[in-house]
Amino acid sequence: MSFFDKIFGGSDAEKDSVNFWHSIESESDLKQAVKKSFEKKVAIFKHSTRCHISKTVLRNFEKEVQNSAQDAEFYFLDLLAHRNLSNKIADDFGVQHQSPQLIVLENGKAVKNASHHSISLDLV
């Protein structure tokens, strides 16, 4: 791992460290997340792999999830690799793009969202 990867993180390093993430890498993945939101809450974490704040918030959020009994599905979007999907999420759910950002879906609609240090498992 390079010096910069240690500081800013690689695109896969963060999400591979825990096993509850479902990746959003295509419109099909996004449709699956929306479909799942009719069964249980879905949380979409939009992450910038070049942002130190985003990396810190992601790690803190992952610790919260791992130490909880939360019954939700958690989806991860690398917004730099999939900016078109990030834009689609903003458009489809009427949520202004932020990074990092957590968007909670229920019954196909965004019911809560937060960005930066306001991201918490309490939203889910």
Walk me through the structure.
There is one protein chain. The protein is globular. The longest helix has 15 residues, at 52-66. Helices cover 37% and strands 23% of the residues. It has 5 helices and 5 strands. Helix 4 (52-66) links the parallel strand 2 (42-47) and strand 3. The protein has one domain (3-123): 3-Layer(aba) Sandwich (Glutaredoxin), CATH 3.40.30. The protein is α/β, with parallel strands linked by helices and 124 residues long. Strands 1-3-2-4-5 form a 5-stranded mixed β-sheet, sandwiched between helices.
Summing up helix and strand content along with how strands pair, one would put the structural category as alpha/beta
Q: What is the domain tally?
A: 1
Uncertain residue ranges: 1-7, 11-16
* SSE sequence, one letter per element: HHEHEHEHEE
InterPro entries: BrxC (IPR022551), Thioredoxin-like_sf (IPR036249)
Pfam families: BrxC
Protein name: Bacillithiol system redox-active protein YtxJ
Describe the SSE topology.
Blueprint: H1 3-8, H2 13-16, E1 21-23, H3 27-36, E2 42-47, H4 52-66, E3 73-78, H5 83-93, E4 101-106, E5 109-115
Parallel strand pairs: 1-3, 2-3
Antiparallel strand pairs: 2-4, 4-5
Protein name: Bacillithiol system redox-active protein YtxJ
InterPro entries: BrxC, Thioredoxin-like_sf
Pfam families: BrxC
Question: In brief, what are we looking at here?
Answer:
This protein has 124 residues and is of the alpha/beta class.
Features:
23% strand, five-stranded mixed beta sheet, 37% helix, 124 residues, alpha/beta, Thioredoxin-like_sf, 5 helices, disordered N terminus, Bacillithiol system redox-active protein YtxJ, BrxC, Glutaredoxin
